[in-house]
Amino acid sequence: MEQFFKAQERGSSVGREVRAGLTTFLAMAYIIAVNPSLLVAAGIPATAAVTSTCVGAGIMTILMGLFSNRPLACASGMGINAIFAFSLTAVAGGDWHAASAVVFVEGIAILLLVLCGLREAIMDAIPVSLRHAISVGLGLFIAMIGLKDGGIIVADESTMVALGDVASPTFIVGLVSIVATIVLYALNVKGSLLLGIIIAVVAGIPLGVTQLPAGIVSGLDFTSFGAPFQVDESGVMGIAKVVTNPTLLVLAFSLMMSDFFDTMGTAMAVAKQGEFLEPDGRVKNIREILVVDSAAAAVGGLVGASSITTFVESASGAADGGRTGLTSVVAGLLFILAAFFSPLISVVSSAATCGALVFVGFLMMSEVAEIDWSDLLEGLPAFLIVAGVPMTYSISNGIGFGFLCYVVVAAVTGQLKKVKPLMWVAALAFLIYFLVV
Fold this sequence. Notes:
Helices cover 66% and strands 3% of the residues. It starts with a helix and ends with a helix.
């Protein structure tokens, strides 16, 4: 095992990797409850939705660990699953098979781009300052997700965002999660992020936030597997509807743009915590990571789980000491196990993971010092990424703002020579993306 994963070589151990895998899984466990609820809204049977969510995430997370040997985990992406349920399915006439086919086509397309080297080349063309900005923006985004899940910040019609109800049980559990994580980390307790989650889960029992499971074991249902090639009541395959419907093809392009750049930001964020980010912002083993991530999108469509993508919550496991793919393998096995015990796993509320996510956000803020804020070409696009990612609640939107700003500022300041050709390609793609979406 050491020869394959090289845990000791990277300053880790098998025990630490197992613990980090558990931390990552718990930080992502909410997807086991959330994703099936959206898939059911699209028309997928509930038991099939749980099976596809857990098994799809488990298989692709294990493959990520084995193929890239980095602590990254995959599952059905939030945001895209809502688009799947309420947009793709509606445009496809209520046929979730066709919606799955859109995701499948998008995944195949982005995999081809990776195999051709285009996706990796675009990442290499990004200025160093923007790479740092992506990490900072992701840190704020992760913290915002944690604070929202913990009920500490809430939507408000007057101020857009406001402080949550300090007397609400969710708020209290979120606060317990944050305080426990900070105290344990400050005391140098190993596994502080994981222990913070567990303490919050226990604290949530008397408050009613941690719901005791109605059962323990659940059966598997594979009826959604092969969804793009299944037929609806009219006898037409989902994949056939996509290739003959221009609107669905445009939606596939939109999803591809989201997947393309979401993973870029996520990989940088996790690489920073997992210590595999180069000084110039390049991510080690990025090609292997992108290949698995792209294949995961296609697999998500194939099994009817929406698009499977690399989760930014992976940074929690990396921050808890995960350095190798063994972290991913552990998390992946837990996802597969969860397919049989989903009622038990669902006791981990999103509020309980609040502390881990907020603390990871704090750790990622160190990148802000690497940006030259006195240089307009470096600082302004970086600022738009840092602000755009959390404020639009979208990694892709924030990156798009920064890319477009970079080429505009370079043009008006006479520094076009600094813009690499593929940055122009990326900026043009984002312009089309914003006009289409």
